UniProtKB/TrEMBL annotation, chains A, B:
Ranges where the DNA/pantothenate metabolism flavoprotein C-terminal domain occurs: 56-111, 192-306
Keyword Transmembrane helix attached: no
Entry protein name: Phosphopantothenate--cysteine ligase cab2
Organism the protein comes from: Coemansia asiatica
Keyword Ligase on entry: yes
Length: 332, 332
């Protein structure tokens, strides 16, 4: 019986002279920039130029990244993330007066549109042909809600308070993250990073990937994946050292939550880790900082959850408050 | 340096007494049915009861399946498939008078809705607030097209000619495939199977899966995946032996296309394999049968492609013609 081995550790690491986890810089040398990188650079630059000099700006990343298993991609590893946290938080930060750069996984949830993405039968299920004038319009039961979201969405877009940039793969995401970081760096403390995207921890380097679709043959498949370098490190230390950085830890094992959050703060030296559990993330999060011994708990009740209250409202208010204090502290 | 090994071949196969590729029946014993299985059973039964006695029925499967890497799923392997082939084919078979059971990956393209799923800003980008009556309606440039699709969609649904059933994981898909097959079997030659979904070839059995999110630690990740049993075999031989079955082969290496299509026909004994290449699948497919030496080529020109012609139109007409001949042959 054959066993298909996609890549060996030795092959995968050959250009890195034996290091197990490669440099972030090396990663960029060995992977291809996404096709929208130049567009993103120009759009973000123009977006920032249009902001008042004291405007708070937040970068929100949202959705999961994919890791291709083949160069001609048929299969990929994906991270679970509908993009609820990120898209909902974007609405909240806009309401708090922030300008929002929303970097999201294509087809994940988007601010304002997110409420109309879960229907089983798509766009058409919200529409009807009017019996009076024959025009296609939104069904009456959806009119008020969609009108409110449509007007907010259009106003934020027209007022240059919301910019949306999309990605699909891990590589797309990392190139865009570096680009936005370098463009936000000059804003110093005024810029917040809210890194809610679910980024893959493992990848197969492009040069050691299978060229064609992996054949199933009659045996098992062994995939060896390399660890993705931790990009929070260059982000905090080099790309945007004066900005206010919030990262996320999603776990399924409650015993790991605190230790992993504290470890990240110690290792990267950024401002906040939001820890959350896969099962309870919609109503409970823990906010960790280097200064505080105990985490700050944010939670909403089951009644609030059922009534449609988003925990991101309290979370964004708390972060905006801490961001304000950070700006004040660093402006002296 | 540590290396995380998710599962060993020995562990993964322990309940199968040493066989590398498990029985389809064993698969169902060891995996959990999807939550919509009972609903699907009832809905499909009722749908079929409402059809005239000579109604042609086609099962169309569409979109890719996911394979979870953890029991508390954060990561999964996915197969590339937007669902274009399946959703477009559903429209074509409806136009040809078929009743369509559309089994699709959640969030993949759906018939009629598929034209309005690629917009970067979602539902809201198709809408405007009318300046005359303040109602939210479809923008004038989209009125005609959306109206046509909306009316067709509503008519097919109201007329019991289209039923939609959704899945996400490989396991969901396989349970639903068996269920629909057993329900379609009594129709004999009148039922067509059009298996366009991109189904994973490899999986990690639930009982040998990591319980929690895999930790990245400081090393590589090795994933050992078992081969998925070939479900076309029980489908053709046991579940629905008299039906007309069309399977698909998607490849990226052109040299494998013919040999793999012929191998599948020989192995499973079904009626048609549609072979296609990842790069050219939108304008060229090859139709293989056991009876014919050379494949029947279906293709459209680049001009047709650019003008919005779907190759699925010619493909469905050709298959309906062959299905008609099959029905006639088996009714004597």
């Amino acid at each position: 019986m054959s066993e298909t081995t996609l890549t060996t550790t030795a092959q995968a690491l050959s250009p890195m002279t034996g290091r197990r986890v490669i440099d972030p810089d090396t990663y960029f040398d060995h992977n291809k920039a996404p096709s929208n990188l130049q567009w993103a650079h120009t759009s973000i630059s123009e977006f920032l130029q249009k902001q008042p000099s004291d405007q708070r700006v937040v970068l929100i990343t949202s959705g999961g990244t994919t890791v291709p298993l083949e160069n001609n991609t048929v299969r990929f590893v994906d991270n679970f993330s509908a993009g609820t946290r990120g898209s909902c938080s974007a609405e909240q930060f806009l309401a708090l007066g922030y300008a929002v750069i929303f970097v999201y996984r294509e087809k994940s949830l988007q601010p304002f549109n997110r409420h109309y993405s879960e229907s089983k039968s798509g766009l058409l299920s919200y529409l009807e042909v009017s019996s009076s004038d024959g025009q296609v319009r939104v069904k009456s039961e959806w009119q008020d809600r969609i009108k409110r979201d449509l007007i907010m969405f259009q106003n934020y877009m027209a007022g240059n308070k919301l910019l949306m940039v999309n990605f699909t793969t891990l590589s797309d995401y990392l190139f865009l993250l570096r680009e936005v970081s370098l463009l936000l760096a000059p804003l110093g403390p005024r810029a917040m990073f809210y890194l809610a995207a679910a980024v893959s921890d493992f990848f197969i380097p492009s040069y050691s990937m299978a060229e064609h679709k992996i054949q199933s043959g009659d045996g098992d498949l062994t995939l060896r994946m390399n660890q993705v370098p931790k990009f929070l490190s260059p982000l905090v230390k080099k790309w945007a050292p004066e900005c206010f950085v919030v990262s996320f830890k999603l776990e399924t094992d409650p015993d790991l939550l605190g230790p992993k959050a504290r470890h990240a703060l110690g290792k990267y030296g950024h401002q906040v880790v939001i820890a959350n559990m896969l099962d309870t993330r919609k109503w409970q999060v823990w906010l960790f900082t280097r200064e505080e011994q105990a985490p700050h708990v944010i939670q909403i009740s089951q009644e609030q959850l059922a009534a449609g209250v988003d925990i991101e409202q309290d979370l964004s208010i708390e972060l905006a408050r801490r961001h304000q204090a950070y700006v004040t502290r660093h402006s002296k």
